[in-house]
Amino acid sequence: MAKKTTPKPVGIIPSDRRGRSPRALSQTINRLTKSMLGRHGLVRGTLLTKWHDVVGEKLSSHTSPEKIVFARDGKSGGILHLRCDSGAFATQVQHQELQILERINTFFGYKAIVRIKLIQAPLGRKRMPRVKPPIPLSSHQAQKLSETVASVEDDELRAALERLGASILRRT
Fold it and tell me: How many other C-beta atoms lie within 10 A of the C-beta of residue 113?
């Protein structure tokens, strides 16, 4: 008599770990992003998330790693495809290629990247608009605001209302 086998689940496969207790995101992030980033050669995704720390603020504001094409072993001898937002900055990156390679390989801990291929295109991330510094209140505005909230008896509430009013007056 043949044993009946249950069909394998399709879609979401139940994990080996049972229970509903929360896990740290750092434990699951590589598993979650591997399918998305693996297509672009950024298997670990750490270079993408730590790009600012690896190359510094100036370089990271004008560049973004696109993908890494590794040699046959899949771990070393890679070519980093790096997106630059302007031709002038791409020229600067070419001159700094050895230093950038050294920083990246120090980050990986071995000679993972041997060459950088530059792609000149917009970075695709929106720049945050610069926030104007708040305009200080004139003495007349400050006095009028104090008079307006003076009737409030609770000290904490009065101070909060005064801060709110000052914030609104500074914007206009």
Answer: 25
Q: How many C-beta atoms surround the C-beta of residue 86 within 10 A?
A: 11
**Domain of residue 65, CATH code:** 3.30.300.20
Do you know the residue count of the chain?
A: 172
User: Rounded to whole angstroms, how far apart are CA atoms 121 and 86?
Assistant: 7
In the three-class reduction of DSSP (H, G, I as helix; E, B as strand; rest coil), residue 117 is classed as strand
Instruction: For residue 21, tell me if it sits in a domain.
Output: no
- The 10s digit of each residue's pLDDT in 138-166 is 899 999 999 999 999 999 999 999 999 99
Q: Angle 73-74-79 (CA atoms, 0-180°, nearest 5)? A: 110
Residue 164 pairs with which residues in a beta bridge?
none
Which residues form the domain of 143?
A: 139-171
Regarding whether 151 and 115 lie in a shared domain, the answer is no
In contact, 45 and 37? CB cutoff 8 Å: yes
For 8-38, write each residue's pLDDT tens digit: 656 565 555 555 667 776 666 666 666 655 5
Any idea which residue has 């980033």 for tokens? 37
Bridge partners of residue 69, in order along the sequence? 79
Count of CB atoms situated within 10 Å of the CB of 16: 5
Determine the Cα–Cα distance for residues 31 and 126; give it in Å rounded to an integer.
27
Can you tell me whether residue 147 is helix, strand or coil? helix
